[in-house]
Amino acid sequence: MGGTSILAAAVEAARAGTEAFQADVIHEAWVGQDALGAPLPFAAPVLRKAFVVEGAFHVKGSDGQIITTKARIGFVGPVEPNGAPGRQEPIDPRDVFTLPSGLKVKSVGVPAVMIDAPTGAPLSRTVWLA
Fold it and tell me: Per DSSP, what are the bridge partners of residue 105?
């Protein structure tokens, strides 16, 4: 078993072993805009298991500005892509999440992730929410 396979197996064991500690979050995927630039309705909500940390965090956005986020969520294992054209898959910075507390927040950052080289799929993913 190569190093990547061992790491992938460890991530899957961590996902399975921590599932009881993960919360249900609702993920609404951004699917685009019409010809005039108005947003289309979001995709049907998908229930996902994630680690949820609510509270103010200061992070640097891709443009260098400091953003105050309201929460962070972490997914262990793959998140299926939506497939809509123009999206950053599988989580687009325009997606919306509803947390167990009822807080409805949009994604403002999707930091880099560890990639499983043989499959190209991320082993885990963190999302900043504001």
Answer: 97
- What DSSP letter does each residue of 35-96 carry, written as one string? TTSPBPPPPPPEEEEEEEEEEEEEEE-TTS-EEEEEEEEEEES-------TT--SSS-TT-E
Which one-letter amino acid corresponds to residue 95? Answer: D
- Alpha carbons 86 and 90: distance in angstroms, whole number: 11
What CATH number is attached to the domain comprising 58?
2.40.10
Instruction: Give the C-alpha separation, 119 to 27, whole Å.
Output: 24
pLDDT tens digits along 50-83:
999 999 988 777 788 888 889 989 888 778 899 9
| Better pLDDT: 23 or 93 | 23
Nearest-CA neighbor of 129 among 82, 79, 100? 100
Residue range(s) defining the domain that contains residue 67: 3-129
